[in-house]
């Protein structure tokens, strides 16, 4: 094994770990390892450094003596030539830009759509699907509540003829917004703006299985009080759901903004990770062609080091060490400590104080060569600590970060995949699918073919996708073979040349030319033939350049996937959810529109009919009331009047006990007469009751006719009529039985005349003969008798006759008490009743009670009908409003579905795959 160095480089003066400075010239120094001749790339790099890089100008041009490092990064760098690789990159970039533009446009449209949706959701709370509860028979809260709260109040009874009815029959619900079953069980829509309305039947829409997949990003996360989401959706007010949905949409919008920002960000992050001491830092330095990160044979990198273009830091090269638990903000110096680049070595071991450091360095390479700043995308390299039990988790988390576009895994060719490496790759492969593999230290391997086979064999199991693309993604290189400029520049103070294991000491370090496959680490051993070493060296550099080209392609391609794919996926989810929710709501709006339109079709005539019924019933009941009251009035007058009139003839069944008890007889008779009058009134009342009951039933029948089952009048109790305003005849009638009442003077007088005539006739009969017989009246008889008997005889007859007459009269009067007393009493009673206006008053009382009794159901029916008409009017107006709303919602959601579909088509057509990695390289 020999170490061959370029003859024009002086490296003998210092060992590999000693900082080197060009001994003889001021121009950038470098060392090369190998056959002794400069490799093509190294030569190009040297030429570049000498002529173009702005390292302070070429020493040949006699400019600066090169004592200071002036990476003229602010100078224009030459436009790269259109090599196939560049063309490939441009094509990739073209794909990327087109996809990026399409996605950005789609994001903006989606954001606008979501904003609209939020606004619409305020007016028309969107329906949100929920899984129906297990027991459909269980009433919903809305079903539990009375659909007619207004009817629950106790109706104050105006009259005690009526009893409050039982619970009202259920009335058809008012117009409500409810979805229509779309088929399968499991889902049901919720009412929206009609949130307070009862939802008698909540249709199911899709199966619970589908429900789980229904919404992904618009899914409202409801985790409260141990209730399931479905239960919560049920228990929450529709407005609450709408506001939760609003919150969710806001979050989605924010996420879309973040994605948009990330898409617009032209930088890309590459995480370089791998086993301890696998050569990660060496690899990063090789990519940068500058010894930026400290390299040590002992594990040294303890924190994440992100290498960024110094232009992002105002062109200043420095290290920002970010303290643990601090969020790095470049513009806020409080979030980090500033160090010079050369101090990086001390910082990277500092994992007690710092969590990461940002290393701002100037790019020394041409646009077409640089990975860091290649003209298309600014790449930030992140050198991770070597994997071990402690760091594996942190690195895995880091690798999963959405900001990481590409994971480069550095594996030692000699050690192959360790357990930590396997674990990491296996996990990262789930996330990233492709991992860029750098099998480093390949120069140390003697049986390269076997090593390659072994590595690929292991990789096949760890990341099949990467294995499949291994020609593009797996590279066997020797990072330490790549010439790197020292930290301070090729001739700067930091150029210690330790980047290559066999670094020789000039400002630019070219590692040793190990041409042996032995895993020996014996770099730079002298003795190898110079030609062989040179060829091998060139080969290593070529291998590395191929790696760089692949990595650039991979970064560009993966950037598309890592930046655009999450946006695309998320956007697709958002749009799918908008579509699902839009379709769900559109269908509900459609069915609601159909339902309310149909409802309106029947409501209009029902409303007209209700108005007609109101008038008709009003007229009908008024007439009935009047007729019935008049009928009862007339009946009462007639009946009571005739009872009074027939009092004298009425057999009250009161026995005349004789003269001695005549007075009590008279009292009994009087009471019986009063009773009879009262009875006649009672009969009239009974008649009135019957008439009223009949008419109440008639009114009820009218109610049933017009209101159907919705009509539930109070129960009429006819026996409760006339309770308050009873007839109080006994108390009103006030007359004493007088002696004269026992004698009917008129009839008595008439009778006496008859008796006197008879006596005279008897007296003179024998005298005057038959002449007297034909006499009609006692006066005639007397005159006749006077003529016959003669005046003297007659005078003698008068006294006994008169006595006889008186006796007869008295005895007659006494005997006729049972006949004359009723007459007398009845006429006295009649007179008093007439004075009291008894008949009329009772007729009025009874008929007015009838009127009142009938007015209640009539009024009740009337108010029911008015309420019904009012309700129908309200329902009609409300239904019209719902129809307008539903129509508006239908239009909105139809548009929403159409729009989300259109945006989705655009997003779907964003093909992130592009051409296969390297496919375009001819
Ligand atoms: N022969 C040979 N040695 C290498 C190669 N790459 C790195 N080395 C050496 O391997 C040792 C470790 O290199 P580093 O770059 O520090 O490794 P690392 O993975 O960054 O180490 P940690 O971050 O501390 O885990 C150094 O001595 C390097 O010179 C290579 O390709 N070939």
TrEMBL record:
Q: Where is this region: Disordered?
A: 1-38, 51-87, 127-204, 484-540
GO cellular component term, pick one = mitochondrial outer membrane
Q: Which domain of life is it from?
A: Eukaryota
| Topological category with respect to the lipid bilayer | Multi-pass membrane protein
* Record GO terms (molecular function): GTP binding; GTPase activity
Q: Which GO terms describe its biological process?
A: mitochondrial fusion; mitochondrion localization
Q: Which residues form the Dynamin-type G domain?
A: 264-585
| Compartments in which it is found | Mitochondrion outer membrane
Please note every region of biased composition (Gly residues): 54-65, 489-506
Q: Which residues fall in a compositionally biased region of kind Basic and acidic residues?
A: 1-11, 73-87
Keyword entries, A-Z? Coiled coil, GTP-binding, Hydrolase, Membrane, Mitochondrion, Mitochondrion outer membrane, Nucleotide-binding, Transmembrane, Transmembrane helix
User: Could you tell me which InterPro entries the record lists for this protein?
Assistant: Dynamin_N, G_DYNAMIN_dom, Mitofusin_fam, P-loop_NTPase
Which reaction(s) does the protein catalyse, per the Swiss-Prot or TrEMBL entry?
A: GTP + H2O = GDP + phosphate + H(+)
- What is this protein called in UniProt? Dynamin-type G domain-containing protein
Q: Which organism is it from?
A: Coniosporium apollinis (strain CBS 100218) (Rock-inhabiting black yeast)
């Amino acid at each position: 094994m020999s170490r061959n160095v370029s003859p024009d480089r002086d490296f003998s003066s210092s060992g590999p770990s000693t900082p080197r400075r060009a001994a003889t010239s001021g121009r950038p120094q470098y060392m090369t390892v190998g056959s002794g001749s400069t490799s093509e790339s190294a030569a190009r790099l040297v030429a570049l450094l000498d002529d173009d890089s702005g390292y302070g100008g070429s020493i040949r041009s006699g400019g600066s003596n090169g004592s200071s490092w002036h990476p003229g990064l602010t100078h224009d760098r030459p436009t790269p030539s259109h090599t196939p690789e560049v063309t490939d990159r441009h094509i990739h970039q073209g794909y990327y830009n087109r996809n990026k533009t399409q996605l950005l446009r789609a994001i903006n449209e989606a954001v606008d759509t979501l904003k609209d949706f939020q606004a619409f959701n305020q007016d028309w709370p969107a329906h949100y699907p929920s899984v129906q509860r297990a027991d459909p028979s269980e009433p919903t809260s809305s079903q539990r509540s009375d659909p007619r709260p207004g009817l629950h109040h106790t109706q104050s009874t105006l009259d005690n003829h009526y009893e409050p009815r039982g619970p009202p029959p259920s009335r058809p619900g008012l117009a409500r917004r409810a979805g229509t079953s779309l088929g399968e069980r499991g889902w049901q829509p919720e009412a929206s703006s009609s949130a307070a309305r009862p939802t008698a039947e909540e249709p199911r829409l899709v199966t619970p299985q589908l429900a789980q997949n229904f919404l992904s990003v618009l899914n409202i996360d409801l985790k409260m009080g141990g209730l399931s989401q479905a239960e919560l959706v049920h228990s929450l007010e529709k407005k609450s759901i709408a506001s939760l949905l609003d919150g969710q949409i806001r979050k989605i919008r924010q996420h879309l903004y973040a994605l948009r920002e990330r898409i617009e960000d032209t930088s890309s992050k590459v995480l370089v990770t791998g086993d301890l001491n696998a050569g990660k830092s060496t690899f990063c330095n090789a990519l940068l062609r500058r010894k930026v990160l400290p390299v040590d044979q002992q594990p040294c990198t303890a924190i994440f080091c992100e290498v960024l273009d110094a232009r992002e830091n105002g062109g200043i090269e420095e290290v920002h060490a970010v303290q643990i638990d601090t969020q790095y903000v470049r513009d806020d110096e409080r979030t980090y400590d500033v160090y010079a680049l050369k101090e990086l070595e001390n910082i990277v071991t500092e994992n007690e104080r710092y969590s990461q450091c940002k290393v701002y360095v100037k790019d020394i390479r041409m646009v077409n060569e640089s990975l860091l700043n290649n003209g298309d995308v600014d790449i930030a390299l992140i050198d991770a600590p070597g994997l071990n039990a402690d760091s594996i988790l942190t690195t895995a988390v880091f690798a999963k970060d959405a900001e990481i576009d590409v994971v480069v895994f550095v594996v030692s060719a000699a050690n192959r995949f360790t357990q930590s490496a396997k674990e990491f790759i296996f996990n990262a492969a789930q996330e990233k699918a492709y991992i860029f593999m750098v099998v480093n230290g390949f120069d140390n391997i003697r049986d390269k073919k076997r090593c390659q086979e072994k590595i690929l064999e292991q990789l096949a199991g760890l990341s099949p996708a990467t294995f499949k693309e291994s020609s593009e993604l797996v590279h066997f290189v020797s990072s330490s073979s790549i010439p790197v400029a020292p930290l301070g520049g090729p001739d700067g103070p930091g150029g210690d040349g330790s980047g290559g294991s066999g670094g020789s000491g000039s400002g630019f370090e070219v590692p040793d030319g190990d041409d042996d496959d032995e895993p020996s680490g014996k770099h730079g051993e002298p003795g190898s033939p110079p030609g062989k070493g040179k060829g091998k060296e060139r080969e290593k550099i070529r291998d590395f350049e191929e790696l760089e080209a692949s990595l650039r392609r991979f970064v560009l391609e993966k950037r598309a996937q890592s930046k655009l794919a999450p946006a695309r996926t998320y956007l697709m989810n958002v749009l799918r959810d908008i579509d699902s929710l839009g379709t769900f709501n559109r269908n509900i709006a459609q069915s609601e529109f159909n339902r309310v339109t149909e409802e309106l079709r029947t409501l209009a005539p029902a409303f007209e009919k209700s108005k007609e019924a109101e008038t008709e019933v009003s007229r009908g009941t008024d007439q009935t009331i009047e007729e019935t009251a008049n009928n009862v009035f007339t009946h009462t007058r007639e009946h009571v009047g005739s009872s009074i009139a027939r009092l004298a003839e009425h057999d009250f069944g009161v026995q005349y006990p004789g003269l001695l008890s005549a007075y009590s007889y008279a009292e009994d008779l009087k009471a019986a007469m009063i009773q009879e009058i009262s009875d006649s009134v009672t009969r009239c009342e009974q008649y009135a009751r019957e008439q009223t009951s009949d008419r109440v039933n008639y009114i009820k029948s009218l109610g049933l006719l017009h209101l159907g089952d919705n009509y539930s009048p109070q129960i009429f109790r006819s026996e409760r009529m006339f309770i308050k305003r009873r007839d109080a005849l006994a108390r009103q009638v006030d007359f004493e039985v007088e002696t004269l009442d026992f004698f009917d003077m008129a009839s008595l007088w008439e009778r006496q005349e008859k008796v006197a005539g008879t006596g005279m006739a008897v007296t003179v009969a024998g005298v005057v003969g038959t002449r007297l017989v034909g006499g009609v009246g006692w006066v005639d008889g007397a005159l006749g008798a006077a003529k016959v008997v003669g005046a003297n005889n007659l005078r003698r007859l008068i006294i006994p006759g008169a006595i006889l007459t008186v006796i007869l009269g008295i005895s007659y009067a006494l005997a006729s008490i049972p006949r004359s007393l009723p007459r007398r009493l009845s006429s006295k009673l009649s007179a008093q009743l007439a004075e009291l206006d008894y008949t009329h008053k009772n007729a009025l009382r009874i008929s007015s009670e009838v009127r009142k009794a009938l007015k209640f159901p009539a009024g009740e029916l009337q108010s029911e009908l008015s309420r019904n008409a009012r309700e129908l009017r309200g329902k009609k107006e409300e239904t019209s409003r719902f129809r307008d709303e539903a129509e508006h919602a239908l239009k909105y959601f139809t548009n929403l579905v159409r729009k989300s579909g259109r945006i989705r088509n655009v997003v779907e057509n964003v093909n992130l795959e592009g051409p296969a990695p390297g496919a375009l390289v001819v």
